[in-house]
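Hi R.,

Quick one: here's the NADH-dependent alcohol dehydrogenase sequence you asked about.
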Amino acid sequence: MYGGGSIKRTGLYDRVKQSLLDAGLSVREKGGVHPNPEVGFIRELIAEAREWRPDVLLAVGGGSVIDTVKAASMGIPYDGDVWDFFIGRAVCEKATPISVILTIPAAGSELSMRVVVTNGEKKLGTASQHIRSFMSLIDPELFFTLPAVQAASGVVDMMSHIMERYFTNTSDTGFIDGQAEAAMRSIMHFGRIIRREPKNYSAWSQIGLAGTFAHNGFYGLGQEEDWACHGMEHALSGWKPSIIHAEGLAVIIPGYLAFVGVRNPKRVAQWARNVMEVKEEDDAEAIREGIARLKAFYREMGMPDSLTALGAGDAPLEELAQSVTGGKTLGHFVPLEASDVLTIYRSVYQAEV
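And here's the predicted structure, written out as C-alpha cells:
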C-alpha cells in the first residue's frame, strides 16, 4: 500500500518491489491513498484483500498510508463494516499483521496502537494492540526529499503527541515528565536543523526516532491522557480535508494552552519553564512567555498562526464545537464544554497584531 507518485519518483517503489520478489514472495499492490484517509477507500481495499488473502499488509508511506493499512487489517477478518470500530459498535479482537516502511516521520503510526480515518465530515479514531506493526523500517535518507511543509508538519505533529500526554492531572509522574520534557526540547532543536539543512542525516535520525517514541505510548505511562487538541483539529480537517493536520494543531495548541493555563496553571507553567526554558517565577507570566516562544517556534517551522491563515476563516465554529464534544466534555486535563471549545476556536481566529 502506498500513496501518490513520490515513492516511484524517488525509486523507493522499485527497490521495495524487487526486494519482495527476490525473497520469493507473491505481491499485490494498491496505491492512491490520500491525506485524511477515507473509509470508502479502505472498504475497497478490504474487499480486494479478502480475495487476495494476504499474510501481511505492508505500508510504504507516512501516517495516512499506515492508518489505511491499520484500518484494513482490522476489517479483513471482521464480518461487519470497518466503520463499526470507530463508532464503538465493535472492538478489534484480531487483525491481519502489518509492517511499515516509513517515508514521513510525523504521525508515529508506525508503532502506535491508534488509527484515525475520515467518513464524510466525521474524522474518528480507535485503538487496538492488534494493529501495532510487527516491523517498522526507518531510514533517515528517505526523508531527504520531503517537501519543507511535510518535514515541518512532522516535527509539529510528533511534539503534539507528547503534549497530549504531558498535560495530565495524574500525580507522581516525575520520571516520565523528565523524559517528555527532554524529548520536546530535542524535537525543537533538531527540527530547526532539518528546516535549515533538509539532508542532515544525523538530525533526521533523531527526529525519526522521536516521532516513533512520541506516539508508542511511552510518554503516557501510568497517566490519564488528554487529546483535546487533536479532537478540535480533527473536527476542522474533517470539515475541510485539505487542512494539514499539523498546521491545524499549530493554530489550536497555543489557544488551548492559554485557556487551560488560567484554569490549571501549575502544569502549564512547569511546561513553560522546563520545555520552553522560561525563567519567569510568576506562573501566569511564565505561561504567557512559554506560549509566545511556542508560537515563535511554529513560525520558524512555517506554520500558520490563525484559523484565517489556515484557510478556515469560514469554518462553522459553533457547529464544530458541538460536534467535537457530542453533548459531553472533551479532554481530561481541563474538561472542555462545547462553549469552551468555541472560545478556543474564536481565540485563534485571527493572529494577534
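The radius of gyration is 20 Å.

Cheers,
M.
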